[in-house]
Amino acid sequence: MNLERFIATRVAFSERKSFSRLIIRIAVVAVALSLSVMIVAMAVITGFKHQIGEKIFGFW
C-alpha cells in the first residue's frame, strides 16, 4: 500500500471524531455536487443546441 492511501484511509476512517474527517466529507460532497451540476449544465446546453439547430434548419 502506498503512503498516500495509508494516510487518507487513516484520516478518513479513524475511530475518533476529528475536524479533518469533517473537512474531507465536505470536500467529497462538494466535488460530487459540482460534478453533477456540470453534467446537468452540459445536458441542457446540448438540448438547446439541438433545438436551435432544428429551428434554423426547419426553414429550409
Compact description:
By secondary structure, the chain is an all-alpha fold.
- How many strands, which pairing sense, and closed or not: the largest β-sheet? none
Let me know the number of strands: 0
Beta-strand fraction estimate = under 5%
Cα gyration radius (Å): 22 Å
Written overview of the protein:
This protein has 60 residues and is mainly α. The chain has one domain. Helix content is 82%, strand content 0%. It is built from 2 helices and no strands. It has helices spanning 3-12, 19-57. The longest helix is centred in the middle third of the chain and has 39 residues, at 19-57. The radius of gyration is 22 Å and the shape is rod-shaped. The mean pLDDT is 88.
Spell out the blueprint of helices and strands.
Layout: H1 3-12, H2 19-57
Which key phrases capture this entry?
single chain; 60 residues; mainly alpha; 2 helices; 0% strand; rod-shaped
